[in-house]
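Entry 14: structure prediction run for Putative membrane protein. Input pasted below.
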Amino acid sequence: MDIIWWFIWLIMLVWIFLVPYDIPGQRNKKERPLDILQKRFARGAIDLKEYQRNKAVLEKDATQ
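Run finished. Output tokens:
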């Protein structure tokens, strides 16, 4: 009987740590650099020129 409980606990721990990242409310997905740039622009942390310059660099890197 004792080995059954160890097996149950092991299954639960494996399930907790190997849950896929796309389940809502579990873990946050990684943001793309362009998403971060857009949020910074929306907050007013950077101006339009800097936003456009950085966006062009990111899009150039993405095509390579």
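Notes: Helices lie at 2-17, 33-43, 48-63. Will compare against the previous run tomorrow.
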